[in-house]
Amino acid sequence: MHAYKAPLRDMRFLMNEVLDYPAHYATLPNGGEATPEMVDAILEGAATLCEEVLAPLNASGDKEGCTLQDGKVTTPKGFKEAYAEFVAGGWQGLSFPTQYGGQGLPASLNLFKTEMMGTANWSFAMYPGLTIGCINTIMQYGTDAQKSQYLPKLVSGEWTGTMCLTEPQCGTDLAQVKTKAEPQADGTYALSGTKIFISAGEHDLAENIVHIVLARLPDAPAGTKGISLFIVPKFIVSADGAVGARNPVVCGSIEHKMGINANATCLLNFDGAVGYMISEPNKGLEAMFTFMNTARIGTAFQGLASAELSYQGALPYAKERRSMRALSGKKEAEQVADALIWHPDVRRMLLTQKAIAEGARCMIYDAAKIADHLFNAVEAGDSKAFKRHENELGFFTPVLKGFLTELGLEAANLGVQVFGGHGYIGEHGMEQIVRDARISTLYEGTTGIQALDLLGRKVLLSSKGKCVRDYTLQMVQFAKSKVLKRTRLGSMSRSLSLRAAEWNALTLAIMLRARKDREVVGAASFDYLMYSGYVMMAFSWAQQAAKARELLDSGTGKESAEFYKAKIQTAEFYFDRLLPRANAHRAGALASTKSLMQMDKDHFNFA
Question: Are 259 and 71 in contact (CB under 8 A)?
Answer without folding.
Answer: no
